[in-house]
Amino acid sequence: MSRDSNYDHHISIFSPQGRLYQMEYCFKAAQSGLTVVAVRGKDSSCVVTQKKVPDRLMEPSSVTHLFNINPKLGCCVTGTMADCKSFVTRARYEAGKWTFDNGYSCPASVLAKRMADLAQVNTQTASMRPLAVVATFLGVDDEAGPVIYKVDCAGHYLPFFATAAGPKEQEAMNFLEKRADALKDMDHNQVVRTAITCLGHVLGSDFRGSEIEVGEVVGKTGQFRTLSEDDIESHLNAIADDADA
Fold first, then answer.
1. What are phi and psi for residue 203, nearest 5 degrees?
2. In this predicted model, which residue has the larger pLDDT, 26 or 219?
């Protein structure tokens, strides 16, 4: 038996190599969810993820990884679904409490920091289990405009121009890095189509409108909204036309 095998029984015990094995297992569980791609442009930000209905008898509209936190802030979660629902419920509570205490809508940066702080506490406490969730917050800042924040299982959070999460995270990041300079000048249609193209590229497949979910925020006064199947189909058709041109 490996010497390190005795150090993965508790979240708060470091191995001699300085590793927290339970956190590594948590990240692996979070990476087993669906692939998420988020892109921020000149005046908008967008997030795209797969939509898989596990049972033909389920109501398709009940299966989603996109959630409204408040009118100007949305969240896309990937990982263990039960943990994702718990994460979103707590995020809504924290955002509502901020609005009640301060009289204005909770900024994405504040909520991302708060949820990251809560996640980090779970890495220190033996009686707590960290949530196997990687969350991407999409919102509007009154000064900066549309923003994207990613929060991981260990409580690490950062703002991004473009990011990805899930099983194909690294492939998606490589795709987006090649287009990093062009992202800042894209309008909201280009942002949505870049995110969809990226997801299709890393998964190696074409989509129908019912197979992906798209959320976006446009402009400083915009609100988070999810696109309908017809809107998604129009973007897919535009992508196909550009590819044929």
1. -90, -15
2. 26
